[in-house]
From TrEMBL:
Record-linked Gene3D superfamilies: Vaccinia Virus protein VP39
Keywords: Methyltransferase, S-adenosyl-L-methionine, Transferase
Boundaries of every Methyltransferase domain copy: 37-129
PANTHER family (alphabetical): METHYLTRANSFERASE (PTHR43464), UBIQUINONE BIOSYNTHESIS O-METHYLTRANSFERASE, MITOCHONDRIAL (PTHR43464:SF19)
Name of this protein: Methyltransferase domain-containing protein
Length: 198
């Protein structure tokens, strides 16, 4: 879709100019140079927002076109944009990031791929770190199963808390006036002293 968009043949519906409103609403601490990872970053709006908070951000997407767009739109950025696969991430990302953001990506995956992707996300969280998950809880197209996005179930959201993570909060929040009337906002953490399960 990103390639078709660059060729003027499609429009990417989630390619918006501003960072996610639900991300901006979070009370995130100043980055102070801590490492952050943005999963499925697209053209980089959320990654740049976190960099503006002082995080050292790595942002990845499986789409090379999306990464090219991110680099073009943010010349001189401090964000490290990479092409990578959530289902086969670099080994050195395990437990390496103080903040991990999964925003609106897993909801775009068909169920079998989603089941493999969800447990991987939490493995990036360092001891003492935080995972933020923002995802569709309902859509206006639930009745016929069309998608993506496909809304995540409560059980799927809870499953992000594997690999030794502790659930801090799971909330459904309203997103009035959008095609996603309610959203999940979930926050998980790893204890500073904890050794995660292998």
């Amino acid at each position: 879709m990103y390639a078709e968009s660059r060729a003027g043949q499609a429009e990417v519906p989630w390619d918006l100019p501003s960072p996610s409103a639900h991300l901006r609403a979070l009370d995130l601490p100043a980055g102070e140079g801590r490492q952050a990872l943005v999963v499925g970053c697209g053209p980089g709006r959320d990654a740049e927002y976190l960099a503006g908070l002082g995080y050292r951000v790595t942002a990845f997407d499986i789409s090379g076109t999306a990464i090219d767009l991110a680099r073009e739109r943010h010349p001189g950025t401090a964000v490290n944009y990479l092409v990578a696969d959530l289902l086969d991430p670099p080994a050195d990302w395990r437990h390496a990031f103080h903040l991990v953001l999964e925003s609106n990506n897993v909801q775009a995956l068909p169920a079998p791929i989603r089941a493999a992707a969800i447990p991987t996300v939490g493995t990036f969280v360092a001891p003492g770190g935080t995972l933020v998950v923002l995802a569709a809880a309902t859509t206006r197209i639930d009745s016929d199963g069309a998608g993506p996005p496909w809304p995540l179930t409560r059980a799927e959201i809870e499953a992000f808390g594997g690999d030794g993570l502790h659930t801090l909060s799971i909330d459904q929040v309203a997103a009035a006036g959008t095609t996603l009337p309610t959203r999940w906002k979930a926050i998980f953490t790893r204890a500073a002293h904890q050794q995660a399960a292998r």
